[in-house]
Design brief:
Elements (H helix, E strand, L loop, with lengths): L18 E4 L2 E4 L2 E4 L3 E4 L19 H11 L7 H7 L9 H13 L1
Antiparallel strand pairs: 1-4, 2-3
Helix pairs in contact: 1-3
């Protein structure tokens, strides 16, 4: 990725409660430069959040709709939303997750 000035980069599909390392590198007419290696740790998401895609503390039709939109690539989920929507833990959001969230919503 090449950019002038400040830049940011969004990552999806990271594992909750995991430490990652990163390093920024830059290039200009004078050559290459690199920052130090830094780390960050993703937030922990408990299994209690499975299906609660919108994070309101309950599983409802709102979570189903959001999961459908994620599965159809109409919206890009945050890491927390992705983890909550991926109820079968196959690292993808599909109709299988939608069906499971529908069933979870009907049980409540």
């Amino acid at each position: 990725m090449f950019s002038k000035g400040l830049f940011s980069f969004a990552l999806i599909g990271l594992t909750p409660n995991t430490t990652y390392e990163y390093k920024a590198e830059a290039h200009n007419e004078k050559g290459w430069g690199a920052g130090e290696v830094l780390t960050f740790t993703t937030l922990s998401v408990s299994n209690g959040n499975k299906g609660d895609v919108n994070g309101d503390g309950k599983i409802s039709v709102k979570d189903v709709i959001k999961t459908v939109n994620i599965a159809l690539n109409k919206i890009n989920p945050t890491d927390v939303e992705f983890t909550a929507a991926d109820v079968n833990r196959d690292n993808q959001i599909t109709i299988r997750d939608v069906v499971q969230i529908v069933n979870m919503a009907l049980q409540k």
